């Protein structure tokens, strides 16, 4: 049994003035930052980075941790963290990590769903440092055949009613695994990974849902099928809206890999009371593998729109886009709305009703924030 630590034992949480997070559950620990803090910097600080856990946080020692590479490879390998660092080129990739349940709270306004009521804060942008997964797979003599899959097994244990207790696992297609942006990461924003973010080693799969970037990685297996772990085979799939927890047929759903075009208003906050005159509205937008080319802001629920100004680092294609708009708002109540457009001319659905599913995944409708002006 791998030693685990409860959320209350995390070092940051023992400080005299712990950082404020919106905590959805403590066991396992799941939390997101207030949106104004999320929008404060392009690179999200550790203290403001959302935490998604499916079980207790493993208590792992870097010096003794080992990574095994096995399965359909010519040469099975085992690495210490030092061997990974010494044996492969170090790479840093700036990329967004996002929970598949980000903005689930909007879907819950339509009908109840399972899962934590994430606001738009189950997302963060970091500079991840490690080695390329492709380099490790090549060293093991893995084929790059697109029919193959790369499965990950982690040290954390998940307990699911009716399923029992099992180690976390997931997989990605070989084509994505061989992409140069996919890392085995041991550092975040220039510092060793924190326990809650996967110390000492995690996978980082830019553009994919966070579930495909397992933390506390212990084993990589090349195989001819996706992982049969519960988290891959019977969860994190988008199923039709008529299905319920009692009637779900997981084979009829599709695996959530790439995340949809999305955007959110981070400032002002929902319910905020503002003064008449110019109001600055800020937020983020994100698209998988395509740039954001336009963000529209409405002050009247989507009847009239203005374009926001965009901020994006062209050297970081897996990062997000920050946007800013200045509105001249008269007194009264206003529904602020944002929608983004990508380079393929795609935009977001207007209402969360259009994408509701009982798991609350892939919530990407126009984000709406009601404010009052006096």
Considering the chains and any ligands shown, give keywords for the structure.
five-stranded antiparallel β-sheet; Immunoglobulin-like; 374 residues; globular; 38% strand; disordered N terminus; Sulfite Oxidase, Chain A, domain 2
Give a nutshell description of this structure.
By secondary structure, the protein is mainly β. Helix content is 8%, strand content 38%. The strands form seven sheets. A five-stranded mixed beta sheet has the order 6-5-14-9-10. Strands 7, 8, 11, 12 and 13 form a five-stranded antiparallel beta sheet that branches. A five-stranded mixed beta sheet has the order 18-25-24-20-21, with no helix packed on it.
* Largest β-sheet summary: 5 strands, mixed
The number of helical segments is 6
Strand content: 35-45%
CATH topology of the largest domain: Sulfite Oxidase, Chain A, domain 2
Radius of gyration: 21 Å
Distance between the termini: 59 Å
| Broad structural category | mainly beta
Estimate percent helicity: under 10%
Any low-confidence stretches, pLDDT <50, length ≥5?
A: 1-17
Number of domains: 2
CATH class of the largest domain: Alpha Beta
Give me the CATH architecture of the largest domain, please: Alpha-Beta Complex
Please provide the count of β strands.
Answer: 25
